[in-house]
Write a structure and sequence with these properties.
twelve-stranded mixed beta sheet, Rossmann fold, Tumour Suppressor Smad4, 8 helices, alpha+beta, about 260 residues
């Protein structure tokens, strides 16, 4: 057994390639969704089983797979005593680059809040996120989405946000794509129509418990390929900025083998 620790995303990716070169039986990744997303394509292409020991902020993939988020010992034991589960891998192609994701790609208001959070330097921690949320609420306006699902005709669909999910939740458990399964070969697409500030604030608590899908302002679809564009489009997936302007979101069915607890 060897232990490799990266000091940056690029360093971690280089170490993942090094690990693959040693032909191990499997890999244990200690980190969050963003850490795994940065190397998952390398590990998947090598057909290695992956055990995730959740150590991030959101840990939404672990939550989707029933992996303990507060018991690293039990999570790590899945490498030896767990069961393999093949799950899908999402892809986002934008600005000439293709990136992988495992949970949810966010387009619209939620992506803009993430972008604003990264731009701000103060305050620290959750307060910075809350400040970003307030700023984007004050700047709220519909995103002029043009969306095409699979081989359908493109549709102009202005909205507050668009979420494309391989799993149900993002942001540490917010079930924006409630019911999404990571191994069905499809993406779950949730579109929220244009909302005013007060209306958005009323809908937001519903998002926290997955009760928004029955609202008339929310539509849900499933597809294997999503093309989306907008003049101010920003795309975040697994907490990382992955595109802008326009993007194509696809799925690689069963591309990743995760080790999960037996119970």
């Amino acid at each position: 057994m060897s232990v490799l620790s990266g000091s940056s995303a690029a360093d971690t990716r280089a170490l993942a390639r090094r690990a693959v070169g040693a032909a191990p039986d499997g890999v244990v990744v200690v980190g969050g969704d963003g850490t795994l997303t940065g190397i998952v394509d390398v590990l998947a292409d090598a057909h290695l089983s992956i055990t995730i020991v959740p150590a991030g902020t959101g840990n939404d993939l672990a939550r989707a797979l029933g992996i303990p988020t507060r018991d690293p010992g039990s999570a790590a034991l899945s490498a030896l005593h767990g069961l393999p589960r093949r799950i899908d891998l999402g892809t986002v192609t934008s600005q000439g680059e293709t990136r992988s994701f495992l949970t949810v790609a966010a387009l619209g208001f939620d992506a803009k809040v993430s972008e604003r959070t990264n731009i701000l330097r103060h305050p620290s921690g959750r307060l910075r996120y809350y400040l970003a949320l307030v700023i984007e609420l004050l700047r709220l306006r519909p995103t002029e989405f043009v969306i095409r699902l699979d081989d359908d005709e493109p549709k102009r669909m202005p909205g507050t946000l668009l979420a494309v999910g391989n799993t149900a939740s993002y942001g540490g458990g917010m079930p924006i794509c409630a019911g999404a399964e990571p191994d069905d070969g499809l993406l779950d697409i949730v579109h929220v129509a244009p909302l005013g500030r007060l209306h958005l604030l009323r809908v937001f608590p519903l998002l926290l418990r997955g009760a928004h899908l029955g609202k008339p302002e929310v539509t849900r679809s499933r597809a294997a390929l999503v093309r989306a564009s907008a003049p101010d489009l920003i795309v975040y997936a697994d907490g990382e900025r992955v595109g802008a302007g326009e993007c194509t979101i696809g799925i690689r069915p069963g591309a990743v083998t995760m080790m999960i607890p037996k119970e």
